[in-house]
Write a structure and sequence with these properties.
This protein is an alpha/beta fold and 238 residues long. The chain has helices spanning 19-31, 52-68, 87-92, 118-127, 141-145, 148-155, 164-167, 173-184, 205-216, 218-233; strands at 2-6, 36-39, 42-43, 74-77, 80-82, 104-108, 131-135, 159-163, 190-192. Helix 1 (19-31) links the parallel strand 1 and strand 2 (36-39).
Length: 238
C-alpha cells in the first residue's frame, strides 16, 4: 500500500514528538503493509507553518534515519492544508507543499462546520491546475448528514480520501457508517492511514482494508491503495 496521508515527521504537529516515535510508527506501518508514504503535516493556524522546502528537508533527514536503521519505508513530502482562501498563492510562494510536488493537494475540511466558501476555494484551485484531495470526508459532519455535499465537490474535479481506521470503527459509529456509505457509492479515490502515532490515531490499516474488501472487493481496494496513489505520486491522472 502507498499511504497518501500520514503524520510521521517528528516535532512538527500532533504526530510523533521524537525521532524514535517516528521510527516506531514506521515499523508498524510496514507491518500493516505500507511500503511508501507521503508525510503530510498539518498546514493550519494551530501549528507553526513550515515551508514546503523545510518539509522536504525534514523528510530527507527522516528518510536517511530510516535507511540507516534498515527500515524499508519510502517517504515523500506534502502537507495537509486546512481549507481557506489563498492556498494556491501559498503553493506559488513555496509556503505550502503539494503531494510530492505534484498537482495534487491534500485538503482538510472543517469537521464541525461547513465553510461557506468551500466550493469557491475548490473552484479556484481547480482553475489554477491544482487538484484537491478531500481528506477524511467521512469525519465531516455536513457530509455525514448529506453525502451529496461530497458529490458536488467531486463534480468540481476534487478527489476524496478515506481513512482506513474509520472503516474499522476506530473513529466512532457515525464516522464508520458514513465511510461505508461513501465507499459503496464509489465516491472514494484513495484509502490512507492518517496515522499520528501508536496511541493517538494509530494506523488501523489492516482492519480497515479487510472491511473495505468486504464492501467493494479486492480489485477496487487495490485501485484505492496502490494504483491511484501511485498515479498521484507520479503526477498522473487519477
Amino acid at each position: 500500500m502507498i499511504d497518501t496521508h500520514l503524520h510521521i515527521l517528528p516535532g512538527v504537529d500532533d504526530g510523533p514528538e521524537t525521532i524514535q516515535e517516528s521510527l516506531t510508527l514506521a515499523r508498524t506501518l510496514l507491518q500493516e503493509g505500507i511500503h511508501s508514504a507521503i508525510a503530510t503535516p498539518h498546514y493550519n493556524d494551530e501549528f507553526p507553518q513550515r515551508s514546503a522546502a523545510e518539509i522536504r528537508e525534514r523528510v530527507y533527514h527522516l528518510q536517511h534515519e530510516l535507511d540507516r536503521q534498515g527500515i524499508p519505508l519510502r517517504l515523500f513530502a506534502g502537507h495537509e492544508a486546512l481549507i481557506k482562501a489563498g492556498l494556491f498563492e501559498d503553493i506559488q510562494a513555496g509556503r505550502l507543499a503539494t503531494l510530492n510536488g505534484s498537482s495534487y493537494l491534500l485538503l482538510e475540511l472543517w469537521t464541525s462546520t461547513w465553510l461557506p466558501e468551500t466550493e469557491r476555494v475548490i473552484f479556484y484551485l481547480r482553475a489554477h491546475g491544482v487538484i484537491p484531495i478531500v481528506a477524511h470526508p467521512e469525519r465531516c459532519r455536513a457530509i455525514q448528514q448529506d453525502p451529496r455535499r461530497l458529490v458536488a465537490l467531486l463534480q468540481q474535479g476534487a478527489l476524496a480520501q478515506l481513512t482506513a481506521s474509520s472503516l474499522a470503527g476506530m473513529q466512532g459509529n457515525t464516522t464508520r457508517r458514513c465511510a461505508e456509505t461513501l465507499l459503496k457509492q464509489g465516491l472514494i479515490h484513495c484509502i490512507a492511514s492518517d496515522a499520528h502515532g501508536l496511541h493517538r490515531r494509530p494506523p488501523g490499516v489492516i482492519r480497515g482494508l479487510e472491511r473495505a474488501t468486504e464492501l467493494v472487493g479486492q480489485a477496487r481496494v487495490y485501485q484505492m491503495t496502490e494504483a491511484q496513489p501511485a498515479a498521484i505520486l507520479s503526477n498522473h491522472a487519477v
